[in-house]
Amino acid sequence: MCEHPHSGNPWMKRETFQHRLADGSHACVHRWLPARARGVVQVVHGMAEHGARYDRLAQALASAGYAVYAQDLPGHGRSVRAADELGHFADRGGWGKTLSAINSVRALAEQELQHLPHFMLGHSMGSFLLQDYVVEHGQGLAGALFSATSGDLGPLRTIGLNLLRVEALWFGGRHRSALAEQLTFKDFNRRFKPARTDFEWLSRDPAEVDLYIRDARCGFRCSNSLWISLMEMGGRLGDQKRLARIPKDLPVMIIAGSDDPACQGEKGPRALEAHYRKAGLSDVAVRIWMGGRHELLNDICRDQVTAELLGWFDKKLGS
Description:
- By secondary structure, the chain is of the alpha/beta class.
- It contains ten helices and nine strands.
- It has two domains: 2-155 and 240-317, Alpha/Beta hydrolase fold, catalytic domain (Rossmann fold); 156-236, no CATH class.
- It has a nine-stranded mixed sheet, with helices on both faces.
- The relative contact order is 0.14.
């Protein structure tokens, strides 16, 4: 276990450690603990990034009394043990194994912190994992916050999925897909001109874009099987039989930037809102940040976004 003391922040201890999962593998977990916790926020990060990138948010939450757990998902960050694991969940059943890993970290937090109110925050790919997670394990959550998410991946999802399946037949599920990257990230960046980098779509803050590019644990290509799992999940976004299994009283917050091409601006988040309202969820809020791009927590509006998220957590705790 590694401790990362923050001078001037006596209220918080940050630790990074390996958590053993049921299948014998390990998940790297970043944990921020306040002196006295009143709630827990578990972060599920996006594709081609890692949990340590949420340090700024975690410090703000910890200073307000929230313990934060942010694991590196399979194939990401320090959960990677070998080079060929980077960007790859698993050879078989990777999506389900990732959901199990998320649930294991939740159980760890509940054990360590005596069942404090537990919130979950999923960003981008992590938000789609969280959409599936609340179907199976939503009971007992204090709230679910979806960042840069969608309830509709658009008409090209099926075409992209079929192309990826063909590519996987030719090259295998572990093949790192340039095709998927071209259909998504490269396409996302085209609308931002002049484009200084390939990642202008992430944030309006050039310094944050540069930090992402310089981070060796960010921006890598992911495997065909991971992409296929994500695209397959997109096919069940509006399945009402599935959505009916979500607890009706689960508080939900959906946040997005109006200029985020990954979720089609406001369209994708509003589609998810409609699905949840149709399913009978009684507490669904949506916040669209005008001009915001994909990573609101790293955009120029990040301080306002963080304050609003903290206010939502506090409200759900009755603070």
